[in-house]
Amino acid sequence: MQPTELTLLELAEKLAAREVTSLEVTQACLSRIAQVDGKVKAFLRLDESGALAAAEASDARRGKGNPLGPLDGVPVAVKDIFLTEGVETTCASRILQGFHPPYDATTVRLLKEAGMPILGKLNQDEFAMGSSNETSACGPCHNPWDVTRTPGGSSGGSAAALAAREVFGTLGTDTGGSIRQPAAFTNTVGLKPTYGRVSRFGVIAFASSLDVPGPLARTVGDVAALLQVLARHDPRDSTSVPVEVPDYSADLEHGVAGLKLGVPREYFTEGMDPEVEAAVREALKVYESLGATLVDVSLPHTKYALATYYLIAPAEASSNLARYDGVRYGLRARDAKGLKEMYGLSRDQGFGPEVKRRIMLGTYALSAGYYDAYYLKAQKVRTLIREDFNRAFQQVDALVSPTSPVPAFKLGEKVEDPLSMYLMDVFTLPCNLAGLPGLSLPGGFTKGGLPIGLQLMGRPFDEAKLLRIGRAFEREHDFVRRQAPL
Amino acid sequence: MPLSDFQPVIGLEVHAQLLTNSKIFCACSTEFGAAPNHNTCPVCLGLPGVLPVLNARVVEFAIRAGLALECTVKKTSVWSRKNYFYPDLPKGYQVTQYDQPICEHGKLSIDTPEGEKVVRILRIHMEEDAGKSVHDASAKESLVDLNRAGVPLLEIVSEPDLRSADEAVEYLKALRDVLVYLGVNDGNLEEGSFRCDANVSVMRKGATVYGQRVELKNINSFRFIKQAIEYEVARQVDVLESGGKVDQETRLFDANRGETRSMRSKEEAHDYRYFPEPDLPPLHVTDAQLDEVAQSLPELPRAKLTRFTSQYGLPEYDARILCAERPLADYFEAVAQHFKDYKKLANWFLGELLRLLKDEGGSITTLRFTTVQFANLLGAVEQGKISANAGKDVFGEMFRTGKEPEAIIAEKGLAQVSDVGAIEAVVDEVLGKNAGEVEKYKAGKKQIYGFFVGQVMKAMKGKGNPALVNELLKKKLGE
Predict the structure, then answer these.
(1) What fold is seen in the domain B420-476?
(2) Neighboring chain B residues of A239 at a CB cutoff of 8 Å
(3) Which one of the listed residues A158, A178, A318, A401 is annotated catalytic?
(4) ipTM of the complex
(5) Contact yes or no for B49 and A202 at CB 8 A
(6) Given an 8 Å threshold on Cβ–Cβ distance, is B48 in contact with A239?
(7) What CA–CA distance (Å, rounded) separates B17 from B364?
(8) pTM of the full structure
(9) Which domains are assigned to chain A?
């Protein structure tokens, strides 16, 4: 068995038992990347020397019996939206070409402090704006299960690299489903933590009130172990919440007997793929058989979530992306005559069409005379959506739904049709609007062999319970053991 | 219709840099005068991924100013983003407070020829300063210095309650005094740490609806404020008199020409697209926090002035000068602990101390001598140990060297002779030597009395106690 076929926790055990070294594993990952990433395009850039040096340092610690933690030496990779000191960080945009950050994101620092070598930077939609990884200025990422299809987005590279067995764990960010939807499309596990649970410091902002960094891996237990590293109050992020961090693995195997699982009727809509619906209904039966009680619940404002999201997220983005003006770093257009032209040309050449579209949407929504009708109204609806969830969680422990209404679609299929692309996030973005944790895990496959994702949504800071519920289903199947046919 | 038929209506917006050691959202120094871009970090450079963390001291200073200006300090206030592009604004937006500022509805009293006037304060909010663009360092490029980016500011907005340029100046001086007294601002207009924009309109006297207002920017001295407002009022009256209408616009004051000129019209006005700053939660101020700041609030200029006239029995003129700056007032009170003739003490402050500070430099907080030494010197003059003139010499020496007054008196031999026997001996000698003059005096030529005094003082090298010299001379001359 290749070391790259191990799960993150299996590798951690072998490292602890000194059956394998971090250097060997890191080299194995790099060979695997060299072998398959030409087809997948999950990595935008590698940091081979950095990763190998970190692996050697890890082995030295293991040799002295002083590992930094249970994951010391386990190679990981991060979405290009995370700042990595000295390693070019572009957010898959031309406008940040050549930007070498002078500091690490808090999450990146935490990975390093846990002793984990970082192999490189992963492909994504430009500034995390997209649901297919096709808006990347560096070209799309491909789904290892069918390279003519999207791995999802925006954290497409974070999911595809795992499905391609190039790495053991990754970081993604989720603003409207950008961790969960790629996880669903690639038979991997992705967790969007509660807003405020994981630091945003050093993560390039898309929509500040919605962005949440989180882990992806191949099993629920792997994700729990990564969350254990990442969940931390960060005084450098004023929206980080100083809530105690539980042991995310403690209850993992406790099953679902006695738990109440809500089935939100608004998440089983017309137009969703019948195979997806069937897989989720099947999963619900499994939960019932394991002793959970299913409860029919309603989240009546779900239908407004998409519109609400597409006012709030672009509004915040239009402001967050104002700093890319060619003055201090990144791309500056040559031959501009005067300041205004420098701004205009730099931003025109630096941003892709989807980013421009959202900047315009957001600028409009915040404009004098439109603010009340759009942005303010959207914030009010956001409150209603949050209240829907609060009511539901008075009755149930978690909600179960599909992650995406469809399995992975073809690259190029929706890229010219922004509205149908936006609809891809319809089941994931309510969680972001409400700030709640959401987990996507493998829920089966279509007849054509495409992965289907099962989504669990929980109460604020109730990640441990979501992971436990996810693990209960995972145990019943061999889905996570199935390998993409690369 | 002449100018006097119009009523100017003025409101002021003051930006005051706060005297915190570090910036509002990062730990960078706020020190003025560092090499360009030296006091910067990823946060105040607006690099990708950075987030603001509020400096608690800024909130404390804002509350201090709010309480001193009798504002309502709000339990919850909200940060907003003001979006616009400018090279010295690194994030492309300024973090400020917009529709929910920390303080509202305050007031500040000013003196006018008609008596005390209360000017209402509309609001006070906190925000970050921008950097500085330098256009004249290179022919082809503009340079940006971001040392100032993120320095905390208070914006204090008055209601349009001011009715003349003089009132505007009075208001600004009073506001500056308060902020400087509170220790939240250094009051320096020239260095830009206390900046003012003015909203000016005119209406016909007796009218109840304000005229179209014009915003004046870039006014950086009290003199310029008066000039700018007076120019603008006259300009608006001219426009109205010639049948025109005043445009809503922003005008820049040109100090070289003493005039205002249009900077941008209403059509060119920015749409700042304000919205709540998602990176900072709403700011909550607790009652405990308010109490703590209220406890630490110093006595304010007007209250101090009143107390100086009543407690020390000083004329208002003296009290005003002493209370103009808090360190001077504090120092007066410290010396007054040891020297109880307050009016005489005030005379020494207004005469000698301020003159020396002005002529020879130095500041009240770095004086070389102690309050006790100061009081001892005044005691020596009071008790006739030295003459008043000698006292001034000793004070000067003390000011320069910090030596004990007694040591200076001894060193310079300035001690006044009050020994009756010694003076009597000199008087006898002078009268003996000048028997002819004594005859003339006794014959009625009283005007030569001064001659005898002069001779005695000369013989005593100026150190004779004048009262005793007089007393003994008159006795010996048979008066």
Answers:
(1) Arc Repressor Mutant, subunit A (1.10.10)
(2) 51, 278-281
(3) A178
(4) 0.95
(5) yes
(6) no
(7) 23
(8) 0.88
(9) 3-259+396-481 (3.90.1300.10)
